[in-house]
Amino acid sequence: MGGRGPASEGDVMARTYIAEEMARLGFQPGAADGGWEQPFDIVGIDAATPETWSFTNGDAEVSFEWWNQYVATSGVQSETASIKNAEVVFVGYGIEAPEFGWNDFKGMDLSGKVLLMLNNDPDWDPDLFEGKTRLYYGRWTYKFESAARQGAAGAIIIHTTPSAGYPFQVVQTGWSGEQFELPAEDEPRIQVSGWLSEDAANALVSFAGMDLALLTEAARSIDFEPVPLGLTTSITLTSEISRVQTANVIGVLPGRDPDLAAEYVVYTAHHDHLGIGIPNDAGDSIYNGARDNASGTAMTLAIGRAIAAHPEPPRRSTMLLFVGAEEQGLLGSKYFATHPTVPPGRIAADINYDSGNIWGRTRNITLIGLGKSSLDAVVRSITERQGRTLEADHFSDRGYYYRSDQFSFAKIGVPALYFHTGTDFVGRPEGWGEEQINAYTNTNYHQPSDTLSDDWNFEGMIEDVRLGYWAGLEIANADQMPTWTPGDEFEAARKRAIADLD
Ligand SMILES: [Zn+2]
Protein backbone atom coordinates (compact mmCIF):
# COMPACT_ATOMS: atom_id res chain seq x y z
CA MET A 1 0.00 0.00 0.00
CA GLY A 2 2.84 2.32 -0.84
CA GLY A 3 3.88 2.84 2.76
CA ARG A 4 0.50 4.40 3.73
CA GLY A 5 1.68 8.03 3.66
CA PRO A 6 -1.14 10.39 4.76
CA ALA A 7 -3.48 11.36 1.87
CA SER A 8 -1.84 8.89 -0.55
CA GLU A 9 -3.72 6.27 -2.53
CA GLY A 10 -2.25 3.61 -0.21
CA ASP A 11 -3.60 5.52 2.79
CA VAL A 12 -7.13 5.32 1.34
CA MET A 13 -6.68 1.61 0.53
CA ALA A 14 -5.46 0.83 4.06
CA ARG A 15 -8.36 2.73 5.65
CA THR A 16 -10.86 0.91 3.43
CA TYR A 17 -9.30 -2.46 4.31
CA ILE A 18 -9.54 -1.73 8.05
CA ALA A 19 -13.20 -0.64 7.78
CA GLU A 20 -14.05 -3.79 5.77
CA GLU A 21 -12.32 -5.99 8.34
CA MET A 22 -14.24 -4.36 11.20
CA ALA A 23 -17.53 -4.80 9.33
CA ARG A 24 -16.68 -8.48 8.78
CA LEU A 25 -16.01 -8.92 12.52
CA GLY A 26 -19.42 -7.45 13.43
CA PHE A 27 -18.35 -3.96 14.51
CA GLN A 28 -20.50 -0.92 13.68
CA PRO A 29 -19.25 2.30 12.07
CA GLY A 30 -18.17 4.68 14.87
CA ALA A 31 -17.65 8.08 13.23
CA ALA A 32 -19.98 11.00 14.03
CA ASP A 33 -21.64 10.93 10.58
CA GLY A 34 -22.47 7.22 10.88
CA GLY A 35 -19.59 6.13 8.64
CA TRP A 36 -16.27 4.47 9.46
CA GLU A 37 -14.03 7.48 8.87
CA GLN A 38 -13.36 10.63 10.86
CA PRO A 39 -11.64 12.87 8.30
CA PHE A 40 -9.23 15.64 9.26
CA ASP A 41 -6.89 18.04 7.46
CA ILE A 42 -3.15 18.15 7.89
CA VAL A 43 -1.49 21.51 7.45
CA GLY A 44 2.12 21.53 6.22
CA ILE A 45 4.27 24.54 7.14
CA ASP A 46 7.59 24.96 5.37
CA ALA A 47 9.25 27.99 6.92
CA ALA A 48 12.20 29.82 5.44
CA THR A 49 14.32 30.91 8.40
CA PRO A 50 16.54 34.03 8.36
CA GLU A 51 20.28 33.37 8.38
CA THR A 52 20.61 35.17 11.70
CA TRP A 53 18.40 36.08 14.66
CA SER A 54 19.33 39.40 16.30
CA PHE A 55 18.79 40.87 19.76
CA THR A 56 19.38 44.49 20.78
CA ASN A 57 20.51 46.00 24.08
CA GLY A 58 20.29 49.77 23.72
CA ASP A 59 22.52 50.51 20.73
CA ALA A 60 24.35 47.19 20.83
CA GLU A 61 23.28 44.11 18.87
CA VAL A 62 24.10 40.40 18.98
CA SER A 63 23.18 37.87 16.28
CA PHE A 64 22.93 34.10 16.24
CA GLU A 65 23.43 31.93 13.20
CA TRP A 66 20.64 29.66 11.98
CA TRP A 67 21.48 25.93 12.34
CA ASN A 68 24.70 26.28 14.36
CA GLN A 69 23.18 28.46 17.09
CA TYR A 70 19.42 28.70 16.64
CA VAL A 71 16.52 26.98 14.90
CA ALA A 72 12.94 28.23 14.67
CA THR A 73 9.59 27.45 13.10
CA SER A 74 6.41 29.36 12.51
CA GLY A 75 3.87 29.04 15.30
CA VAL A 76 1.07 30.21 13.01
CA GLN A 77 -0.43 28.69 9.85
CA SER A 78 0.06 31.73 7.64
CA GLU A 79 2.68 32.84 5.16
CA THR A 80 4.23 35.33 7.56
CA ALA A 81 5.10 34.86 11.22
CA SER A 82 6.64 37.88 12.79
CA ILE A 83 7.89 39.35 16.05
CA LYS A 84 8.64 43.09 16.21
CA ASN A 85 10.72 44.77 18.93
CA ALA A 86 9.49 42.33 21.56
CA GLU A 87 11.04 42.33 25.05
CA VAL A 88 12.84 39.15 26.07
CA VAL A 89 11.94 37.71 29.50
CA PHE A 90 13.57 34.71 31.21
CA VAL A 91 10.72 32.63 32.72
CA GLY A 92 12.65 29.73 34.29
CA TYR A 93 10.99 26.45 33.34
CA GLY A 94 7.87 28.18 31.95
CA ILE A 95 5.67 25.84 34.00
CA GLU A 96 2.29 26.37 35.66
CA ALA A 97 1.48 23.24 37.74
CA PRO A 98 -1.13 23.78 40.47
CA GLU A 99 -0.72 20.20 41.78
CA PHE A 100 2.90 21.00 42.72
CA GLY A 101 2.12 24.59 43.82
CA TRP A 102 4.48 25.73 41.04
CA ASN A 103 3.95 28.81 38.84
CA ASP A 104 6.93 30.34 37.04
CA PHE A 105 4.91 33.30 35.72
CA LYS A 106 3.63 34.69 39.06
CA GLY A 107 0.88 36.60 37.26
CA MET A 108 3.30 38.84 35.33
CA ASP A 109 1.89 40.27 32.07
CA LEU A 110 3.86 38.49 29.34
CA SER A 111 1.67 39.31 26.37
CA GLY A 112 3.66 40.23 23.27
CA LYS A 113 6.97 39.18 24.87
CA VAL A 114 9.50 36.54 23.89
CA LEU A 115 9.94 33.98 26.67
CA LEU A 116 13.33 32.37 27.21
CA MET A 117 12.91 29.02 28.98
CA LEU A 118 14.85 26.11 30.46
CA ASN A 119 14.11 22.68 29.05
CA ASN A 120 12.82 19.68 31.10
CA ASP A 121 11.02 20.03 34.45
CA PRO A 122 12.53 20.33 37.95
CA ASP A 123 14.27 16.97 38.49
CA TRP A 124 16.20 17.27 41.77
CA ASP A 125 13.43 16.45 44.28
CA PRO A 126 11.41 13.19 44.17
CA ASP A 127 8.37 15.05 45.61
CA LEU A 128 8.46 17.70 42.91
CA PHE A 129 7.56 16.74 39.30
CA GLU A 130 8.37 13.10 40.21
CA GLY A 131 12.10 13.75 40.39
CA LYS A 132 14.05 12.44 37.43
CA THR A 133 10.97 11.25 35.54
CA ARG A 134 10.15 13.65 32.72
CA LEU A 135 6.52 14.73 33.00
CA TYR A 136 4.60 16.50 30.25
CA TYR A 137 5.75 19.77 31.85
CA GLY A 138 9.24 18.85 30.73
CA ARG A 139 8.41 18.35 27.04
CA TRP A 140 9.01 21.10 24.50
CA THR A 141 5.42 20.86 23.22
CA TYR A 142 4.18 21.85 26.70
CA LYS A 143 6.57 24.81 26.83
CA PHE A 144 5.42 26.36 23.55
CA GLU A 145 1.75 25.80 24.55
CA SER A 146 2.45 27.33 27.94
CA ALA A 147 4.02 30.44 26.34
CA ALA A 148 0.97 30.76 24.07
CA ARG A 149 -1.36 30.65 27.09
CA GLN A 150 0.57 33.64 28.46
CA GLY A 151 -0.17 35.56 25.27
CA ALA A 152 3.55 35.64 24.38
CA ALA A 153 4.71 36.55 20.85
CA GLY A 154 7.40 33.90 20.86
CA ALA A 155 9.31 31.39 22.94
CA ILE A 156 12.88 30.14 22.93
CA ILE A 157 13.93 26.92 24.65
CA ILE A 158 17.53 26.68 25.83
CA HIS A 159 18.99 23.40 24.62
CA THR A 160 21.34 21.38 26.78
CA THR A 161 22.01 17.72 26.04
CA PRO A 162 21.10 16.49 29.56
CA SER A 163 17.84 18.50 29.72
CA ALA A 164 16.71 17.43 26.23
CA GLY A 165 17.98 13.85 26.36
CA TYR A 166 19.54 14.32 22.89
CA PRO A 167 22.23 16.50 21.27
CA PHE A 168 21.54 19.80 19.45
CA GLN A 169 21.79 18.03 16.07
CA VAL A 170 18.49 16.27 16.80
CA VAL A 171 16.89 19.68 17.30
CA GLN A 172 18.48 20.92 14.06
CA THR A 173 17.15 18.10 11.89
CA GLY A 174 13.80 17.82 13.70
CA TRP A 175 13.09 21.54 13.33
CA SER A 176 14.02 22.05 9.70
CA GLY A 177 11.98 21.15 6.64
CA GLU A 178 8.21 20.93 6.46
CA GLN A 179 6.37 20.59 9.79
CA PHE A 180 2.84 19.17 10.02
CA GLU A 181 -0.03 20.20 12.27
CA LEU A 182 -3.79 19.99 12.64
CA PRO A 183 -5.64 23.06 11.34
CA ALA A 184 -5.54 25.91 13.85
CA GLU A 185 -8.74 26.32 15.84
CA ASP A 186 -9.30 28.78 18.69
CA GLU A 187 -6.27 27.71 20.77
CA PRO A 188 -3.75 30.46 21.62
CA ARG A 189 -0.61 30.45 19.42
CA ILE A 190 2.78 32.11 19.47
CA GLN A 191 4.25 33.58 16.27
CA VAL A 192 7.65 31.89 16.50
CA SER A 193 8.89 28.78 18.34
CA GLY A 194 12.66 28.63 18.66
CA TRP A 195 15.63 26.86 20.24
CA LEU A 196 19.04 28.25 21.15
CA SER A 197 22.13 26.10 21.62
CA GLU A 198 23.61 26.16 25.12
CA ASP A 199 26.55 28.35 24.02
CA ALA A 200 24.28 30.81 22.24
CA ALA A 201 21.96 31.04 25.26
CA ASN A 202 24.91 31.78 27.53
CA ALA A 203 26.07 34.46 25.10
CA LEU A 204 22.58 36.00 24.92
CA VAL A 205 22.23 36.27 28.70
CA SER A 206 25.80 37.65 29.04
CA PHE A 207 24.90 40.24 26.38
CA ALA A 208 22.11 41.32 28.77
CA GLY A 209 24.75 41.72 31.49
CA MET A 210 23.54 38.68 33.42
CA ASP A 211 24.69 35.13 34.05
CA LEU A 212 22.66 32.16 32.80
CA ALA A 213 24.05 29.89 35.54
CA LEU A 214 22.72 32.29 38.20
CA LEU A 215 19.33 32.63 36.45
CA THR A 216 19.14 28.83 36.20
CA GLU A 217 19.88 28.56 39.93
CA ALA A 218 17.16 31.15 40.71
CA ALA A 219 14.68 29.15 38.57
CA ARG A 220 15.06 26.18 40.96
CA SER A 221 13.15 28.07 43.64
CA ILE A 222 9.37 27.86 43.97
CA ASP A 223 9.52 31.66 44.62
CA PHE A 224 11.20 32.37 41.26
CA GLU A 225 9.81 35.37 39.36
CA PRO A 226 10.30 36.12 35.64
CA VAL A 227 13.39 38.21 34.86
CA PRO A 228 13.16 40.78 32.02
CA LEU A 229 16.55 40.74 30.26
CA GLY A 230 16.35 44.33 29.00
CA LEU A 231 16.72 43.05 25.42
CA THR A 232 14.41 43.37 22.44
CA THR A 233 14.20 41.21 19.33
CA SER A 234 12.54 41.03 15.92
CA ILE A 235 12.29 38.12 13.50
CA THR A 236 10.14 37.28 10.47
CA LEU A 237 9.64 33.81 8.95
CA THR A 238 7.98 33.30 5.58
CA SER A 239 6.34 29.93 5.03
CA GLU A 240 4.76 27.85 2.34
CA ILE A 241 1.49 26.39 3.59
CA SER A 242 -0.08 23.20 2.22
CA ARG A 243 -3.18 21.22 3.19
CA VAL A 244 -4.15 17.56 2.63
CA GLN A 245 -6.75 15.25 4.16
CA THR A 246 -6.58 11.84 5.83
CA ALA A 247 -8.84 10.07 8.37
CA ASN A 248 -9.12 8.04 11.54
CA VAL A 249 -11.09 4.79 11.15
CA ILE A 250 -13.49 3.97 13.97
CA GLY A 251 -15.54 0.87 14.80
CA VAL A 252 -17.74 0.17 17.82
CA LEU A 253 -19.09 -2.97 19.45
CA PRO A 254 -21.93 -1.95 21.82
CA GLY A 255 -21.71 -3.18 25.43
CA ARG A 256 -24.40 -5.43 26.93
CA ASP A 257 -25.03 -3.58 30.22
CA PRO A 258 -27.75 -0.93 29.73
CA ASP A 259 -26.14 1.26 32.43
CA LEU A 260 -22.55 0.91 31.27
CA ALA A 261 -22.87 0.61 27.48
CA ALA A 262 -22.49 4.40 27.16
CA GLU A 263 -18.93 3.97 28.47
CA TYR A 264 -16.07 2.74 26.26
CA VAL A 265 -12.83 0.84 26.32
CA VAL A 266 -10.84 2.20 23.38
CA TYR A 267 -8.07 0.32 21.58
CA THR A 268 -5.80 2.46 19.40
CA ALA A 269 -3.15 1.79 16.76
CA HIS A 270 -1.86 4.14 14.07
CA HIS A 271 -2.47 2.92 10.51
CA ASP A 272 -0.20 5.39 8.69
CA HIS A 273 3.50 5.25 7.96
CA LEU A 274 5.94 7.40 5.95
CA GLY A 275 4.79 6.52 2.40
CA ILE A 276 7.17 6.75 -0.53
CA GLY A 277 10.44 8.61 0.00
CA ILE A 278 14.18 8.67 -0.62
CA PRO A 279 15.32 5.25 -1.95
CA ASN A 280 17.74 3.19 0.12
CA ASP A 281 20.95 1.61 -1.26
CA ALA A 282 18.92 -1.26 -2.71
CA GLY A 283 16.75 1.22 -4.64
CA ASP A 284 13.66 0.58 -2.50
CA SER A 285 11.66 3.78 -1.95
CA ILE A 286 8.60 2.34 -0.17
CA TYR A 287 8.66 2.86 3.58
CA ASN A 288 6.48 -0.15 4.41
CA GLY A 289 6.23 0.30 8.16
CA ALA A 290 5.51 -3.40 8.63
CA ARG A 291 6.40 -3.33 12.31
CA ASP A 292 5.63 0.42 12.63
CA ASN A 293 2.68 0.07 12.63
CA ALA A 294 1.03 -2.58 10.44
CA SER A 295 1.83 -4.93 13.33
CA GLY A 296 -0.08 -2.82 15.89
CA THR A 297 -2.99 -2.44 13.47
CA ALA A 298 -3.13 -6.24 13.05
CA MET A 299 -2.87 -6.73 16.84
CA THR A 300 -5.82 -4.39 17.39
CA LEU A 301 -7.92 -6.11 14.71
CA ALA A 302 -7.10 -9.45 16.37
CA ILE A 303 -8.38 -8.14 19.71
CA GLY A 304 -11.53 -6.88 17.98
CA ARG A 305 -12.05 -10.33 16.49
CA ALA A 306 -11.65 -11.99 19.90
CA ILE A 307 -14.09 -9.61 21.62
CA ALA A 308 -16.65 -9.87 18.80
CA ALA A 309 -16.51 -13.68 19.12
CA HIS A 310 -17.85 -13.62 22.70
CA PRO A 311 -21.38 -15.10 22.92
CA GLU A 312 -22.27 -11.92 24.88
CA PRO A 313 -20.31 -8.68 24.51
CA PRO A 314 -18.56 -7.13 27.56
CA ARG A 315 -20.60 -4.76 29.80
CA ARG A 316 -19.03 -1.57 28.46
CA SER A 317 -18.76 -0.82 24.75
CA THR A 318 -15.54 -1.48 22.82
CA MET A 319 -14.10 1.00 20.32
CA LEU A 320 -11.36 0.21 17.84
CA LEU A 321 -9.74 3.47 16.75
CA PHE A 322 -7.17 3.36 13.95
CA VAL A 323 -5.58 6.80 13.88
CA GLY A 324 -3.84 8.49 10.95
CA ALA A 325 -0.81 10.78 10.62
CA GLU A 326 0.89 9.52 13.78
CA GLU A 327 4.29 9.85 12.14
CA GLN A 328 3.59 13.57 11.53
CA GLY A 329 3.21 14.18 15.27
CA LEU A 330 0.34 12.07 16.70
CA LEU A 331 -2.07 14.15 14.60
CA GLY A 332 -4.90 11.59 14.26
CA SER A 333 -5.09 10.84 17.99
CA LYS A 334 -4.83 14.58 18.76
CA TYR A 335 -7.73 15.21 16.38
CA PHE A 336 -9.83 12.49 18.02
CA ALA A 337 -9.02 13.89 21.48
CA THR A 338 -10.19 17.36 20.46
CA HIS A 339 -13.18 16.02 18.46
CA PRO A 340 -14.11 12.85 20.38
CA THR A 341 -17.06 10.84 19.07
CA VAL A 342 -18.03 9.99 22.67
CA PRO A 343 -17.55 12.20 25.79
CA PRO A 344 -14.00 11.79 27.23
CA GLY A 345 -15.57 11.35 30.69
CA ARG A 346 -17.18 8.15 29.36
CA ILE A 347 -13.96 6.62 28.02
CA ALA A 348 -12.85 4.14 30.67
CA ALA A 349 -9.36 3.58 29.25
CA ASP A 350 -7.23 3.57 26.12
CA ILE A 351 -4.98 0.64 25.22
CA ASN A 352 -2.47 1.54 22.51
CA TYR A 353 -0.39 -0.72 20.27
CA ASP A 354 2.59 0.58 18.33
CA SER A 355 5.26 -1.71 16.85
CA GLY A 356 4.75 -5.27 18.11
CA ASN A 357 7.34 -7.75 19.36
CA ILE A 358 8.77 -9.67 16.38
CA TRP A 359 11.47 -11.61 18.25
CA GLY A 360 9.64 -14.21 20.38
CA ARG A 361 8.33 -14.76 23.93
CA THR A 362 9.66 -12.64 26.78
CA ARG A 363 9.77 -13.15 30.54
CA ASN A 364 9.14 -9.43 31.09
CA ILE A 365 7.19 -6.56 29.58
CA THR A 366 7.56 -2.81 30.07
CA LEU A 367 4.54 -0.67 30.95
CA ILE A 368 5.32 2.90 29.91
CA GLY A 369 3.86 5.08 32.67
CA LEU A 370 3.78 2.39 35.37
CA GLY A 371 2.53 4.01 38.60
CA LYS A 372 0.20 6.50 36.93
CA SER A 373 -3.18 4.79 37.35
CA SER A 374 -5.23 1.93 38.77
CA LEU A 375 -4.65 0.11 35.46
CA ASP A 376 -1.30 -1.07 36.92
CA ALA A 377 -3.13 -3.60 39.13
CA VAL A 378 -5.18 -4.92 36.20
CA VAL A 379 -2.07 -5.40 34.08
CA ARG A 380 -0.03 -6.86 36.92
CA SER A 381 -2.51 -9.65 37.63
CA ILE A 382 -2.59 -10.62 33.93
CA THR A 383 1.19 -10.57 33.45
CA GLU A 384 1.49 -12.71 36.61
CA ARG A 385 -0.92 -15.22 35.08
CA GLN A 386 1.26 -15.15 31.97
CA GLY A 387 4.30 -15.84 34.16
CA ARG A 388 5.86 -12.53 33.19
CA THR A 389 7.20 -9.64 35.24
CA LEU A 390 5.88 -6.13 34.73
CA GLU A 391 8.58 -3.49 34.57
CA ALA A 392 8.70 0.28 34.60
CA ASP A 393 10.27 2.21 31.73
CA HIS A 394 14.07 2.01 32.03
CA PHE A 395 14.39 5.44 30.40
CA SER A 396 11.73 7.44 32.28
CA ASP A 397 13.73 10.65 31.74
CA ARG A 398 13.11 10.35 27.97
CA GLY A 399 9.38 10.90 28.30
CA TYR A 400 8.18 7.98 26.13
CA TYR A 401 4.74 8.28 27.74
CA TYR A 402 4.25 11.59 25.90
CA ARG A 403 5.46 10.40 22.51
CA SER A 404 2.79 7.93 21.39
CA ASP A 405 -0.92 8.03 20.67
CA GLN A 406 -2.16 7.03 24.13
CA PHE A 407 -0.83 10.37 25.40
CA SER A 408 -3.56 12.21 23.46
CA PHE A 409 -6.03 10.30 25.68
CA ALA A 410 -4.14 11.05 28.91
CA LYS A 411 -4.33 14.75 28.04
CA ILE A 412 -8.15 14.59 28.06
CA GLY A 413 -8.05 12.63 31.32
CA VAL A 414 -8.38 9.04 30.05
CA PRO A 415 -6.09 6.53 31.83
CA ALA A 416 -4.05 4.78 29.17
CA LEU A 417 -1.90 1.71 28.64
CA TYR A 418 1.10 1.50 26.36
CA PHE A 419 3.70 -1.26 26.43
CA HIS A 420 7.23 -1.64 25.12
CA THR A 421 8.51 -5.04 24.08
CA GLY A 422 10.16 -7.02 26.87
CA THR A 423 13.92 -7.53 26.70
CA ASP A 424 14.37 -10.89 28.46
CA PHE A 425 13.66 -13.46 25.72
CA VAL A 426 12.83 -17.10 26.50
CA GLY A 427 15.67 -19.40 25.39
CA ARG A 428 18.01 -16.53 24.57
CA PRO A 429 21.10 -15.34 26.43
CA GLU A 430 21.15 -12.13 28.46
CA GLY A 431 21.54 -9.05 26.28
CA TRP A 432 20.13 -10.78 23.16
CA GLY A 433 16.85 -8.86 23.29
CA GLU A 434 18.49 -5.48 23.59
CA GLU A 435 20.74 -6.41 20.66
CA GLN A 436 17.72 -7.22 18.45
CA ILE A 437 15.86 -4.07 19.45
CA ASN A 438 18.92 -1.87 18.86
CA ALA A 439 19.62 -3.57 15.52
CA TYR A 440 16.05 -2.86 14.41
CA THR A 441 16.29 0.76 15.56
CA ASN A 442 19.60 1.33 13.79
CA THR A 443 18.83 -0.54 10.56
CA ASN A 444 15.08 -0.78 9.93
CA TYR A 445 13.31 1.88 12.02
CA HIS A 446 11.70 4.42 9.64
CA GLN A 447 13.55 2.82 6.69
CA PRO A 448 12.26 0.97 3.60
CA SER A 449 13.64 -2.21 5.22
CA ASP A 450 10.93 -2.23 7.94
CA THR A 451 9.19 -4.99 6.04
CA LEU A 452 7.57 -8.36 6.80
CA SER A 453 10.25 -11.02 6.88
CA ASP A 454 10.39 -14.81 7.36
CA ASP A 455 12.45 -14.44 10.53
CA TRP A 456 9.66 -12.63 12.37
CA ASN A 457 8.60 -14.66 15.41
CA PHE A 458 4.98 -13.92 16.37
CA GLU A 459 4.85 -15.79 19.73
CA GLY A 460 5.68 -12.74 21.85
CA MET A 461 3.35 -10.50 19.87
CA ILE A 462 0.50 -12.96 20.47
CA GLU A 463 1.18 -12.90 24.21
CA ASP A 464 1.15 -9.07 24.18
CA VAL A 465 -2.17 -9.10 22.28
CA ARG A 466 -3.64 -11.44 24.93
CA LEU A 467 -2.45 -9.05 27.64
CA GLY A 468 -4.34 -6.11 26.10
CA TYR A 469 -7.37 -8.27 25.34
CA TRP A 470 -7.67 -9.49 28.96
CA ALA A 471 -6.97 -6.01 30.34
CA GLY A 472 -9.68 -4.46 28.15
CA LEU A 473 -12.14 -7.17 29.14
CA GLU A 474 -11.48 -6.63 32.83
CA ILE A 475 -11.84 -2.84 32.46
CA ALA A 476 -15.05 -3.26 30.40
CA ASN A 477 -16.66 -5.55 32.99
CA ALA A 478 -15.59 -3.76 36.21
CA ASP A 479 -18.19 -1.90 38.30
CA GLN A 480 -16.07 1.27 38.35
CA MET A 481 -13.97 3.02 35.72
CA PRO A 482 -10.20 3.10 36.31
CA THR A 483 -8.71 6.10 38.13
CA TRP A 484 -5.45 8.06 38.03
CA THR A 485 -3.07 7.68 40.95
CA PRO A 486 -4.00 10.54 43.33
CA GLY A 487 -1.90 13.63 42.52
CA ASP A 488 -1.04 12.43 39.00
CA GLU A 489 -0.51 15.17 36.41
CA PHE A 490 -3.65 14.04 34.49
CA GLU A 491 -6.04 13.63 37.44
CA ALA A 492 -7.33 17.20 37.07
CA ALA A 493 -8.17 16.60 33.39
CA ARG A 494 -10.22 13.51 34.37
CA LYS A 495 -12.15 15.48 37.00
CA ARG A 496 -12.96 18.14 34.37
CA ALA A 497 -14.07 15.48 31.88
CA ILE A 498 -16.40 13.85 34.44
CA ALA A 499 -17.76 17.27 35.54
CA ASP A 500 -18.50 18.07 31.86
CA LEU A 501 -20.92 15.12 31.72
CA ASP A 502 -23.53 16.87 33.91
ZN1 LIG B 1 7.05 5.50 13.47
Concise structural overview:
By secondary structure, this protein is of the alpha/beta class. 28% of the residues lie in helices and 25% in strands.
Topology summary:
Layout: H1 9-25, E1 28-29, E2 37-48, E3 52-57, E4 60-65, E5 70-74, E6 80-90, E7 96-97, E8 102-103, E9 114-118, H2 140-149, E10 154-158, H3 161-164, H4 168-174, E11 179-181, E12 192-196, H5 198-207, H6 212-218, E13 227-253, E14 264-270, E15 275-276, E16 286-287, H7 290-308, E17 317-323, H8 331-338, E18 347-352, E19 364-367, H9 375-385, E20 389-392, H10 406-411, E21 416-420, H11 432-443, H12 459-477, H13 491-499
Parallel strand pairs: 6-9, 9-10, 10-12, 14-17, 14-18, 18-21, 19-20
Antiparallel strand pairs: 1-13, 2-11, 2-13, 3-4, 3-13, 5-12, 6-13, 7-8, 13-17, 15-16, 19-21
Helix pairs in contact: 1-7, 7-12, 9-12
The protein binds zinc ion (ZN).
Mean pLDDT equals 95
Helix/sheet category: alpha/beta
| Quaternary structure type | single chain
C-alpha termini separation: 45 Å
Q: What low-confidence regions span 5 or more consecutive residues with pLDDT below 50?
A: none
Strand content: 25-35%
Shape: globular
Question: How is this structure best described in words?
Answer:
The chain has a 17-stranded mixed sheet that branches. Strands 7-8 form a two-stranded antiparallel ribbon. A two-stranded antiparallel sheet has the order 15-16. The chain has helices spanning 9-25, 140-149, 161-164, 168-174, 198-207, 212-218, 290-308, 331-338, 375-385, 406-411, 432-443, 459-477, 491-499, and strands at residues 28-29, 37-48, 52-57, 60-65, 70-74, 80-90, 96-97, 102-103, 114-118, 154-158, 179-181, 192-196, 227-253, 264-270, 275-276, 286-287, 317-323, 347-352, 364-367, 389-392, 416-420. It has 502 residues and is α/β, with parallel strands linked by helices. Helices cover 28% and strands 25% of the residues. It is built from 13 helices and 21 strands. Zinc ion (ZN) is lined by residues 292, 327, 446.
